UniProtKB/TrEMBL annotation:
Taxonomic lineage: Bacteria, Bacillati, Actinomycetota, Actinomycetes, Streptosporangiales
Lineage top rank: taxon: Bacteria
Chain intervals with Basic and acidic residues compositional bias: 438-447
Region Disordered, annotated ranges: 438-458
InterPro entries in the record: MetalloPept_cat_dom_sf
Protein's name in the database: EcxA zinc-binding domain-containing protein
Gene3D superfamilies: Collagenase (Catalytic Domain) (3.40.390.10)
Length: 853
């Protein structure tokens, strides 16, 4: 993790509830940093007394949205309120901010645990490193119906309204915030310990099981393991389950999924280059059971149809007009409906509320009707799975931001630039992210050990991976290969596939791409039940009568795509229209296959210009090779030049290259600890060109390269020695010469469709280029195409089609193209090969390059 990491946390969370006739609510704002002595931990510092809290009543009439607002005393964190209703707010600290929602009610009428059992981590701690409380059980409450539009059911987790006590203090400790710290591992899952909750004269018990994630476990079983003794130098893949129970049926299903996924990934042409690199991968599986099937859903769901409950917000079109907003886009702009929504002429209301970028022409009658019904009374119970992954995220779990200049609340609710900026700021609360995201649940991963998007080497998942050993003698400790390190690159980083027992679509590479997770099917709705239809309190996912039948084709495509992130490949699809702030982004995108407008903008062009400097494209000059090999040991400087050692089995090709007087290049590919390869380094000692082959020892696989000027650098193990492809008098690059010339002349991407405002799910066809003959499937042309990183504009990728854009592939007419649908583009193939084994570059160039010289 980076030492400069800083964010803000709001406790108890960002979607709070308080009752006028109820216990007091206190909040705390903490700043979290990675600047601690322990690289696996984050530090928390309370800054509540240095914060400014500003409220807003979004459902009040314009002109009165600053009336009767709640307040928070920075000195104590105490919330005071006088009027029931729904309020948005921001908490500001220096240039940082975090937004939230407070719902004020008259009374709390009932409470319950929002999960039927929970697993927490064993964390006894030491004198130097005190133990940390991990899991936090969700607690929900029902409130009086005050006719204000506030939710009847709310999330009061961490509010300290409910008193929690452990039944066995020697086995479990509980923090005031309600987090659980395991002090003794649960020996028999059938005999859990319990906590007791008390509030409103009601008591309830919750079973708790303590799991030692860091325990050494000989649970790694081989699927394909060509070289276990040298696992530290291999690319190791492991499949682990989430939400699979300890039954013969679940174990059999998991084994079937793993076997099929491995066979398909490493056999089918559409998933190349995994197949040609198969000998460089050790592939394992490890089974660890969960208590529950299915995943926790962070999002709330609609309850108008119990058989097809929709995530809120639904990530798709619900209007009748093709040009209308998606429900997710509309909610992000106008917010959620009030409970029992009854307002008329909503378009007129929204148009007069100073909402940022609201376009009434993108709202139709059907969309409004669906928006009105886009609510549910209850909140889904969480599920007790071993790693605590969840789909989407809760409204309660928000990220902080940085604002420069600071956005503050104006004195009055009258139209002004300051009001528009403030309304846009607090309405950020309604940006709930994508519900298909599958990531570690903050209520199962403590804030001291887990930040979304960071590697988090101390969290439960990485602890579990780090303790895995080979199942057979000598029981090699292979697990540490999957634990990320800050200072060095590990080949196996991110090659972890967590297969989740769920039929709702979900799949993500998470936490700095240290693992991927994916569900078994692609349903967009789910089945629910209420424990009591009259009271409508406890909402649960309904277990179908038949087990989930995995969509294996979808699963294989998803794993192959998500592993692409482990090779530092970014998503190339589009979720949002427009540029997404890319115009002002002066640093390049961290992913090797993507770039951004602000960085690429041609020199001297104004900030509004879309002209790009193709010379800044980091994949523009990737070389093509006709012969390649990887150094097995560090090069050695000898009197005649530089001696390199390759696999002796292939030395005959280099004997022939010497006879042909081939030009040879020697390159050391620098890889950052997080796996970044591009741009290729031009530092001294990274590349030598114009070399010739001297003495060869065929038995040892060594040969001497001559022609380098002193002082001679040394090249590390894993470096590449290769003969470049020649195109006339030039060396051929991955991007064709005619395409490079066209990009330099036009300063524009190759897209035939110039629309960078509206999202497109399609592959992109390139424009015609004089003298250039594209491949039969012209979407495979390598160059620069706009539309990537989830935005329709402002982000650029290398080809019109790629697995990172569409893992399933667009249906084609020709059978040979259909077999290759959903394939990686050539640049992504090149990058994977380069990371795993650059000796395959010549095979890649000869078999898969899309076009001629």
């Amino acid at each position: 993790m980076a030492a400069e990491f800083v964010d803000m946390l709001l406790f108890p969370h960002c979607d709070m509830h308080v009752a006028l006739d109820g216990p007091a609510l206190r909040v705390a704002v903490n700043v979290r940093t990675s600047d601690t002595a322990d690289p696996g931990r984050y530090g928390l510092a309370d800054v509540t007394d240095r914060c400014t809290f500003e409220f807003f009543a979004p459902h009040n009439q314009v002109g009165h949205r600053f009336d009767g607002l709640p307040e928070i005393d920075p000195a104590t964190g105490r919330v005071t309120a006088a009027t029931p209703g729904v309020y948005l707010f921001q908490a500001r600290w220096e240039h940082g901010y975090i937004v939230g929602r407070l719902q004020v009610h008259n009374k709390i009428t009932a409470w319950w645990f929002g999960i039927d059992s929970i697993t927490t981590a064993l964390d006894v701690g030491t004198a130097a490193s005190p133990g940390i409380a991990h899991a936090q059980p969700s607690i929900y409450a029902k409130f009086s119906d005050d006719a204000t539009g506030a939710d009847r059911i709310g999330d009061i987790t961490g509010h300290r309204y409910v008193t929690l006590t452990p039944d066995e203090p020697a086995k479990l400790a509980i923090t005031p915030q309600g987090r659980l710290r395991g002090l003794a591992e649960t020996a028999d899952p059938a005999q859990p310990t319990h906590i007791t909750g008390s509030f409103l004269g009601q008591t309830a018990k919750l079973p708790v099981r303590v799991f030692d994630y860091a325990k050494s476990r000989p649970d790694l079983y081989p699927i394909q393991t060509p070289d276990v003794p040298h696992a530290d130098d291999m690319h190791n893949v492991v499949f682990v389950p989430e939400g699979f129970r300890d039954t013969d049926e679940d174990r059999k299903l998991f084994d079937q999924i793993v076997t099929t996924t491995v066979r398909e990934m490493f056999d089918k042409p559409r998933h190349q280059p995994y197949a040609i690199l198969e000998g460089s991968f050790n592939i394992f599986k490890a089974f660890v059971p969960s208590r529950d099937h299915y995943l926790t859903c962070g999002f709330r769901v609609t309850d108008e149809d119990f058989n097809q409950a929709m995530p809120i917000p639904f990530n798709g079109k619900l209007g009748s007009d093709p040009g209308s907003y998606t429900m997710q886009e509309l909610v992000a702009l106008v917010g959620l409906p009030m409970h029992n929504e009854s307002r008329f002429d909503l378009v007129a209301i929204w148009s007069g509320q100073s909402l940022k970028d609201f376009d009434p022409s993108k709202v139709d009658g059907q969309l409004i009707a669906r928006w009105r019904a886009h609510e549910g009374v209850g909140i889904l119970h969480a599920r007790d799975t071993v790693f605590g992954l969840h789909l989407g995220r809760r409204p309660a779990d928000r990220f902080s931001g940085i604002s420069n200049p600071v956005v503050s609340r104006p004195a009055t609710d009258t139209v002004s630039d300051q009001l528009k900026a403030f309304v846009a700021r607090v309405y950020e609360f309604y940006d709930f992210g994508v519900t298909r995201e599958l990531t570690p649940d903050p209520r199962r991963n403590p804030p001291e050990l887990h930040v979304q998007g960071q590697p988090n080497p101390g969290n439960p998942i990485t602890r579990y991976l780090g303790g895995l050993r080979y199942a057979y003698a000598p029981f090699s400790a292979i697990g540490q290969n999957w634990v990320p390190e800050v200072t060095r690159f590990k080949p196996s980083r991110g090659l972890v596939a967590i297969i989740a027992y769920d039929d709702v679509i979900g799949g993500t590479s998470f936490d700095g791409h240290i693992a991927t997770a994916q569900t078994l099917d692609k349903k967009r709705t789910l089945e629910i039940n209420y424990a009591d239809l009259v009271d409508k309190r406890e909402m649960r996912r309904r277990d179908p009568l038949a087990p989930v039948k995995p969509d294996l084709a979808k699963l294989v495509n998803t794993v192959a795509h998500e592993f692409g992130h482990s090779f530092n490949l970014g998503d190339e699809y589009e979720y949002f229209g427009g540029d997404g702030g890319s115009s002002a982004q002066t640093a390049d995108v961290e992913f090797d296959n993507l770039s951004v407008l602000g960085f690429l903008r041609a020199a001297g062009e104004p900030a509004t210009s879309r002209l790009i400097d193709a010379g800044k494209i980091k994949w523009l000059e990737l070389p093509r090779t006709s012969l390649s090999a990887m150094l097995l040991v560090r090069s050695r400087n000898v009197a005649a030049g530089i001696e390199v050692t390759i696999d002796p089995r292939y030395i005959g090709r280099w004997v022939q290259a010497k006879k042909e007087d081939a030009e040879v290049h020697l390159r050391n590919f620098a890889i950052t600890p997080d796996g970044r390869q591009l741009p290729l380094s031009k530092a001294p000692g990274q590349l030598l060109t114009g070399l010739k082959i001297g003495d060869i020892d065929e038995s040892l696989g060594t040969f001497v390269l001559t022609g380098a000027a002193a002082p001679l650098p040394e090249y590390r193990r894993g470096s590449a020695v290769y003969v470049p492809v020649k195109a006339g008098d030039d060396r051929a690059q991955v991007v064709h010469k005619k395409v490079r010339e066209f990009l330099a002349q036009t300063k524009a991407p190759l897209n035939r469709d110039l629309d960078h405002v509206h999202i497109s799910r399609d592959d992109d066809q390139p424009v015609d280029i004089a003298g250039f003959f594209p491949p039969c499937d012209s979407t495979k042309t390598i160059g620069v195409f706009e539309g990537a990183n989830e935005f329709a504009g402002g982000f650029y990728r290398s080809a019109g089609s790629c697995k990172m854009r569409n893992s399933a592939g667009t249906p084609r007419v020709w059978s040979e193209i259909t077999q290759d649908g959903g394939a990686f583009c050539y640049v992504c193939k090149w990058l994977i090969v380069n990371r795993v084994d650059p000796s395959y570059h010549a095979i890649l160039s000869g078999r898969f390059y899309p076009g001629e010289l």
